[in-house]
Every structure is written in structure tokens, then in C-alpha cells.
Amino acid sequence: MLRNVKLISITLLAVMMLVMAGCSSIATDSAEGNKQAVTTSAESQSTKSADKDTMAKMVVYVPRDDGKGVRPQTITVDSDKKTLKYAISFLFDEDSRQSYPIFPKNVTVKDVAIKDGIARINLSKEFLEGGNIDGLSAQLRLASIVNTATSFDAVKKVQLLVNSETIKTYGGYDVSEPMSRMEQQIVK
Asked: Rounded to two decimals, what is the model's pTM?
């Protein structure tokens, strides 16, 4: 029995020495090893920094479910996706997930052109579908699109087109001229 206790004690002592030796060799590596660890750490930070550099934030204005305006929603996207076309497409997609979506199904952004501070947003014909558009729905749709577009530095006003044609009125609103930001519709 005394022999078993000695054997167990020696085994535990050997295991503890191996564990401590393993820990201490990592902690007291040579100067070359420490240099390598620092380099690896710096490379990791540089990679993380590069990942952050490829990401960008943008704001889309999503209609509130209670109909009391639009709310800003900040999203993080790849830098190459930080375009007005992507933002409006994201807005339509995000709206479709709401309890009470206000945009017609299958509406898409055909193209976007920005010139002299005016964004010309060309939408698919589905934007006009759905019969008579009431004033509140039209107001929320317009506020969502215009405020999302004017959140881009290069955009001061927005002109809406459907199938490359300028639309004159939308839900009782005159949209024949480029529209400015609709601050009064933003509810935070």
C-alpha cells in the first residue's frame, strides 16, 4: 500500500512537472520566439484592421409599423456594396420583413444615376402597382426612399422614375420635380 502511494505521488509529481515545464517554455521562450509571437500578433491585428477597412456603415430609413414616420437603421456592409442602389434595394427587402410592409412586393431598383447632387432612381413598374395609393402609404414610401438617398453625401435631392419615365404624382404628392430630404418624417 505504501508502495502504491509512492507510485501515485511520483506519477502526480511527474505530471505536474511536465505541465509546468510546458507552461514555462511558452512563457520563457527565447528572444527569437518572442519576436515571432509579436510578429504573429501584429499580423493578426493588421488582418483585423484590413477586415474593418472593407466594411462600411450606411443608414436606411425604414417605415415604422405604427405609420408615424420612418426610423433610421444603420447597417454594416462590405465597402463595395455601399451604393445608393444597394441601400434602396436593402430598404425594400427590410420592409418586406416588417409586420405591415408598405412597399409593393417585387419592386426593384433598375438603376441609379447621381449628377449635380440629384439622384435619379429608376424603379420597376411594381412601384406603381397596388391600385390607389393612400396618402399615408405614399408619404412613408417617399420618405423612406428620399431620406435613405439623401443620407449619401453626394445626394441632395431625389428624382423618382418608373421604367425610365418620370412620374408626375404619387399618392396625391407632386413628384414631378426632384424632392429634398423629408426631415419631418424621421422619428427616432
From this structure: 0.71
